[in-house]
């Protein structure tokens, strides 16, 4: 029988430490307990991911699941201790940040064309219709100012080059457009992290594991 506690203790401790730094109001012991609870509630995923031949892929799957589970737990605890409802949280999506950044960088908080729905899970209205556009631009502006100078420059050059990856690659001496686009994505993700991160997804265990299917 696999001793998952011994095998994944280092990963659990790593995730717990990272989340405790991000959410200091939540004890690291409670976060660690939440990690182990994920293993208890997801026995099929645990068995299948543990049996993967590529251990890097296996570790990556477990790490992502634990980060998601603890993020959801910590956000709930933060809301409870801070006196607001978890439903009050707003999660920024990458495409929305990309669309609003030009107006933020120019300092002209105007409505971009073809703005998408900002949060389809909570509302079918666009930010301008919901009266949230200026607040969102202000949030993104504050988060942008907290970025490293290198990331700020990448985003400035990205929009100055007309959002052209090949042009950006030449400007910052990268080998290809894919590498340039990755720099942009990382900078935008850094903004989203400073805005509270991505929305945790609902993580259910597999109904039937692949091992069971093959056995059947």
Question: Notable features of this structure?
Answer:
single chain, 216 residues, mainly alpha, 66% helix
Summed over residues and divided by their number, the pLDDT gives a mean of 82
How many helices? The count is: 11
How many structural domains? 2
The tally of beta strands, per DSSP, is 0
Shape: globular
Give the uncertain stretches in residue-range form: 117-131
Helix/strand-derived class? mainly alpha
- As an assembly, this protein is single chain
Summarize the structure.
This protein has 216 residues and is mainly alpha-helical.
Give a structural overview.
This protein has 216 residues and is mostly helical. The protein has two domains: 4-87, no CATH class; 94-194, no CATH class. Helices cover 66% and strands 0% of the residues. The chain has eleven helices and no strands. Helix 1 (4-22) packs across helix 4 (55-82), helix 8 crosses helix 10 and helix 9 packs across helix 10 (177-194). The longest helix is centred in the first third of the chain and has 28 residues, at 55-82. The protein is globular, with a radius of gyration of 21 Å.
